[in-house]
Amino acid sequence: MAKVFAFAEQRGGEIRSAAREAVTAAAKVAGGLGTEVKALVVGGPGAASSAGELGRFGAAGIEVVEHEALSDYQPEAYARVVAGRVRAGDYGVVVLPATTLGRDLAPRVAALLDVPLAGDVTELDVVDGALTVIRPVYSGKAFAQVRVDAAPALVSIRPNVFQPTDAPGAGIVEVVATEVETSWARTRVVERKAAEGGALDVSEATIIVSGGRGMKDPSNWPLLEALRDAIGDGVALGASRAVVDAGWRPHGEQVGQTGKTVAPKLYVAVGISGAIQHLAGMRTSGTIVAINKDPDAPIFNVADYGIIGDLFEVVPRLTDAVAALRASG
Scanning 82, 213, 243, 295, which has its CA 20 to 30 A from the CA of 222? Predict the structure, then answer.
């Protein structure tokens, strides 16, 4: 029985949450196939330092490819390395995260392996010995069930959907000597700009407080920052496309079809009407709370809880209530 492969994303030698999710999803598939999971970590020297933790989530083995040329993400080089390791291991199923990096890497790997890619998957299962997945289509307005008959079956999973689950595996780390040519890299990183104040990326947050044009002015964003801080850790600020286009917020915070697709446990939409492109990016959130003064706003059609009212009155009161609740224990 062919093994299951999971690409484990890392940054600066630290394993990303998306890596744990990918291994968790791969372990679920491996359980259905009666086989084991192998994970792959690609990076610069030292990438193996924290790779062993992936065994906690079901990886029987973790291959690590270290090379100076791989210290920064290089699309062509990473794709060649991943495709090469997939071929060498004769894997039957390949799981990658649909993160910003994964959305760029997965189709490149698919092209090198000459197989289709089932992208942005929200559910995985094994039916009659074959991988079957569910993925959003038509901007999230419907879900397609897809049987992946390719060999290997290549999928990318939506972040924050497959919560990391303890399923201890052997977790044996092996640094693999793989040929890496510097000529593979056609791009180079010239500068990195960190988010202000080390802000959490919306694609990794378990809770998102997002604002739209109803905020009226960028100077009003402290209202959302106060709510974020009252809720606590693991909360990120998001924004609609209209807000980003107006220059109120950075593009990295944009949620939607032309921004980032997110699936947090809780999504709070403040002053967001709910345009189709925005809904496409957050429709699969666990719980959606909408605050808008327009009772006919489309956002209420997907919200689990809706508050019809002036956000400038509602948000401060909500912030106080959340802070009081946390203070009480």
Answer: 295
Q: Which residue has the tokens 């909408």?
A: 290
Phi, psi of 150 (to 5 degrees): -70, 160
How many whole angstroms separate alpha carbon 287 and alpha carbon 280?
A: 15
- Specify the domain boundaries for CATH 3.40.50.620 within the chain: 4-184
List, in sequence order, every residue forming a beta bridge with 288; answer none if it has no partner: 267
Domain 196-327 annotated CATH 3.40.50.1220:
yes
In the prediction, which pLDDT does 166 show? 85
**Fold topology of 4-184:** Rossmann fold (3.40.50)
Q: What stretches in the chain show pLDDT beneath 70?
A: 1, 194-198
CB atoms closer than 10 angstroms to residue 138? 10
- Looking at residue 195, its pLDDT comes to 63
Of the candidates 63, 52, 117, the one whose C-alpha atom is nearest the C-alpha of residue 88 is 63
Say if pTM beats, i.e. exceeds, 0.85.
no
Sheet holding 142-148, edge to edge: 123-127, 130-137, 142-148
> Which residues in the chain are classed under CATH 3.40.50.1220?
196-327
C-alpha to C-alpha distance for 284 and 222, rounded to whole angstroms: 27
Closest CA to 106 of 18, 171, 12: 18
Q: Are strands 123-127 and 130-137 parallel, antiparallel or unpaired?
A: antiparallel
DSSP code, position 22: H
- What confidence score (pLDDT) does residue 197 get? 58
Q: Which residues of 166-190 are buried (b: 16+ CB within 10 A; e: fewer)?
A: ebebebebeebebebeeebbeeeee
Q: What is residue 167's predicted lDDT score, i.e. its pLDDT?
A: 81
Helices (H) and strands (E) in the chain, counts: 7, 17
